[in-house]
């Protein structure tokens, strides 16, 4: 197990190094100069040059990358070009919205998908199976931003059960969770549809294995066989999807955050791009990539826990 973990850790570190280079290079080659954007079209060349020097944009790219990367290692994300405030503070304020939203949505997705997938698999070919798969197909097909706007129209404008957007802060946790409920549902339902279909497919494959039939032949009931043998072995592809979903919910919630006017990381990236605040874009995207890689690392470790055979293959 230790050898397997160290192998995964080595891959994690290499992935982070490559990701930092790709992110920095990709953002830096985007057309447009932050100093020129900040000063406007009528700015004088010497004024632009002075601002570029002040922002550290006049040094070679490789030096700027090294300064940025070494700062990340020490927890220093740099200073925003536009707001002149530490990016770590900007991220910290918004992370307490995006992270709970992602966890909330992933929890809802899992709570919906597991029973639906298991129910469909255990009743294969029945009307229940067809109904569950039909609903999940609809959930996959509907864009989450359209579903989000529909929920705002129904539950916020017509029924007035929830607010249409904004975030009141965490002074009142119940009010904060209520503000995150509609965005979390909008994010969770498409993901729950995907996860339920994967759960059903993986469980059906597992139920057809020889050891499952052997367990039934030894006298175990269908329910005992399902919970003791089939379900655990069906979790490996499901864990993969859950890991990818959490990564998506953290990094891909920019549209939902804008629909509900949530000041999270996605909205911060959107604003930074529009303002050419490149260092904010680089730092936030790197943080999100770090979260993706860490989640994938945790999923790999979970693989080894669920299926001990993987430990001997590393």
Automatic annotation (TrEMBL):
Mind telling me which InterPro entries this protein's record contains? Answer: BPD_transp_1_N (IPR045621), MetI-like (IPR000515), MetI-like_sf (IPR035906)
Q: Which subcellular locations apply to this protein?
A: Cell membrane
Membrane spanning residue stretches: 12-31, 95-120, 141-162, 174-196, 234-256, 284-306
Q: What is its main location?
A: membrane
Source domain of life is Bacteria
**Where do the ABC transmembrane type-1 domain residues begin and end?**
95-299
Extract the PANTHER family matched here.
DIPEPTIDE TRANSPORT SYSTEM PERMEASE PROTEIN DPPB-RELATED
What's the protein called, per UniProt?
Answer: Peptide ABC transporter
